[in-house]
Amino acid sequence: MAETMTLELTAAESAELQAQIDHYLTEMRRLNEQMARDQERIDTLKDESRVIMAETRVLMEGLQRALSEMSAA
To answer: Is residue 8 situated within a structural domain?
Structure first.
C-alpha cells in the first residue's frame, strides 16, 4: 500500500504561496487583455489591408486600360 504524505504549511508559507498565485493570476489576466487588444489591432490592420488591396486593384486595372488604349492609338 502506498503511503500518503501531507505537507503542513506555516501561515507565512501559506500567505506567500497565495501571494504568488494571486500574482500569476493577475499576470494571466493582464496578458489575456493584451492579447485581446493585439487581436483587435491585427483585425483592424487586416481590414485596412483589404481596402488598400482593392483600391490598388482598381488603380492597376485603370492603368492597364490606359496603356492598352495608348498602344492601340
So the answer is: no
